[in-house]
Write a structure and sequence with these properties.
The longest helix has 19 residues, at 86-104. By secondary structure, the chain is mainly α. The chain is built from 11 helices and no strands. It folds into 2 domains: 3-24 and 139-200, Helix-hairpin-Helix base-excision DNA repair enzymes (C-terminal) (Endonuclease Iii, domain 2, Orthogonal Bundle); 33-132, Hypothetical protein, domain 2 (Endonuclease III, domain 1). It is elongated. Its EC number is 4.2.99.18.
């Protein structure tokens, strides 16, 4: 990075920390690693709020990994129907639960290679687990992070894996997990895809895409 780019990144991080704080938070309700894993799998193409409504009853009905491994797929499909793509999600959840029990003794692994070998687990889901459960610095490229990182000029790629690596190169390691949390909050409240509120955004002075009228 050039000196100017480094200064811009440092200013972005400073503003995000000042505006949104530096507390770690997870928007998906969970009590342990496997619950977060399943909740994250359900969150694909679905809001966290909807997932939390579903998992409130789901984790009561299926209180253990073994219960998910033994689940009737048609019944599980009905239980998670409202999260969308329920057929694939049900198949992957059961397969994932079985593999966690048979290969990992019921424990959710912490390394990305093992995580991404689980049914239905890609890099995004794996990094959610690594960041929230194991506090391993990681970048989760969801739709908000992808879109807003492009607007900020931190990447020009559409490939989530490439964006992940570019952000890891540009952002200080201690900012990785916080950046995820902060940008998701920004994307849900201010930098909304169809109606961005640039004039209200704390980053408008450093964002090359800002449309602010003085």
């Amino acid at each position: 990075m050039t000196k100017k780019e480094k200064q811009q990144v440092a200013e972005i991080c400073r503003i995000l920390n000042e505006t949104y704080g530096t507390d770690y938070k997870c928007y998906l309700n969970h009590e342990n690693a496997w619950q977060l894993l399943i909740a994250t799998m359900l969150s694909a193409q679905c809001t966290d709020a909807r997932v939390n409504i579903v998992t409130k009853d789901l984790f009561v009905k299926y209180p253990t990994l073994q219960a998910f491994a033994d689940a009737d797929i048609k019944e599980l499909e009905k239980d998670i129907y409202s999260t969308g793509f329920y057929k694939n999600k049900a198949k992957n959840i059961i397969g994932c639960a079985k593999k966690l029990i048979s290969e990992y003794g019921g424990e959710v692994p912490s390394d990305i290679e093992s995580l991404t070998k689980l049914d239905g687990v890609g890099r995004k889901t794996a990094n959610v687990i690594r960041g929230n459960i194991y506090h391993e610095p990681s970048i989760v490229v969801d739709t908000h992070v992808k879109r807003i990182s492009r607007l900020l000029g931190l990447t020009d790629s559409d490939d989530p894996v490439k964006i992940e690596h570019e952000l890891m190169e540009k952002l200080p390691k201690e900012q990785w997990i916080l950046y995820n949390i902060q940008i998701i909050t920004l994307g849900r409240t201010i930098c909304i895809a169809r109606r961005p509120k640039c004039a209200e955004c704390a980053l408008n002075r450093v964002c090359p895409s800002a449309n602010v009228t003085e």
